[in-house]
């Protein structure tokens, strides 16, 4: 087709309410029952086929009812991974030859299926497999994922439209935004179905083929993503999913000369390990692999003496405890002036203690269990340390119970020492550390956060005083890639607040934005001369 086309203008998918008796709830309930009652076989997807892995079986359990097995996968062996990379290699020429309109159409169709007939099943898999309440599942697995696909289709076209600014007389300059040579390795986290799906699909949209290794604890919703993409018409071999903990898959993928890029989201430690491995192998690759990673956070809320206490309390409770603090953006430390603390303390304690925690299938719950036994043990140790440390008061929570599921109670610690580990270590769970400071020290505290933060992902200032807001914006300029004024530091929306952080929080390539898509292209500049020179001499030569 010869045409300069447009994609439908992207609009953020609105979350639905799921109130009792409503149509959304009615559609969701049978999907929950169906997935709960089925022990799914979670296969690898290689060259479009569902292929059981040759490795050890791993059960995927409901984190809030750990004895309930939702599905089982067998980890990919080295041979499985080699076959998956080969499938990506085979699919690459035909996929790159498709126009951006054709590639975008597949993701736009996937977004429409997701927000239509696949909505209930996608939410149900995310609720059960990752222990999300319906609200948290809806804003992630449906709304954010549909937004990634619709906005990326729009942004990709902006990139393709980017052409040289100037043409000398008799010359036509063009830019060809090619895919990378080789395959992209997408390694994804447990906590967001949307991030897990965006990491392989964003490079695919730009014409690349992909090896995708999801987190073992997200294996169930990853299976539904693959089924959905197949239903939307994604050709075999464009995205090849292999299961496993990671090191075995990396052992093959990082040693392949065709590794063209890594698209990672997860912990800082894993990302740094992958980067080091690429560094060790750098002379073996055909190209320099593009390395894009969004990683950990220790996200702050800084309150000013002018803060509205109700705004602050809500920002802390939602920011710290929604999805049990298992968002890279979660508010896990707060700095509160003494005058505000006097008015906040009791309400924060009471609200936190009263938060309903339990199975996400009980719609009255605000949050649920942490993801697995490893996360539970880490939190139990952190709570025991806090209880035993002089200068830390456990204001709310402080308890954990794994008799049924991996439950850690929403916890508020009041911490005297601003250098305590609870104010600098990412626990990745429902623990909020609060440091109370003298009102006069606002600027000093802001400067300390800016200087000492190892991470720089999200942060918030809560203040009514505009001078204070302006000063904090400036002082904290490099302390957060996503900065919020009078709001919680979670819940970035695609197309509105492009998401990502710097320092140990990642390469800040902004998922769901043109900056990210640009990393999956390798531009070729083309100069065409209409009347080429015929004389080799230059004018100064006489
Ligand atoms: N900045 C962001 O946008 C963002 C978003 C979500 C999560 N996160 C971060 O992710 C972390 C939580 O997620 P997680 O527990 O899934 O992280 P993780 O690092 O434990 O795991 C991430 C992925 O890496 C895999 N992995 C581990 N070792 C590997 C190896 N050697 N080779 C290949 N893959 C390997 C895991 O199996 C998983 O798929 C937190 O630190 C959180 O802040 C960041
Ligand atoms: N984009 C999400 C965070 C993803 C990390 O886990 C937010 O803004 O809350």
UniProtKB/TrEMBL annotation:
Pathway: Amino-acid degradation; L-proline degradation into L-glutamate; L-glutamate from L-proline: step 2/2. Its EC number is 1.2.1.88. Keywords: NAD, Oxidoreductase, Proline metabolism. Residues 1-21 are annotated as: Disordered. It is an enzyme of class 1 (oxidoreductase). The active site is at 294. One of its GO terms (molecular function) is L-glutamate gamma-semialdehyde dehydrogenase activity. It catalyses: L-glutamate 5-semialdehyde + NAD(+) + H2O = L-glutamate + NADH + 2 H(+). Residues 56-526 form the Aldehyde dehydrogenase domain. Belongs to the aldehyde dehydrogenase family. This is L-glutamate gamma-semialdehyde dehydrogenase. It comes from Kineosporia corallincola. The gene is pruA.
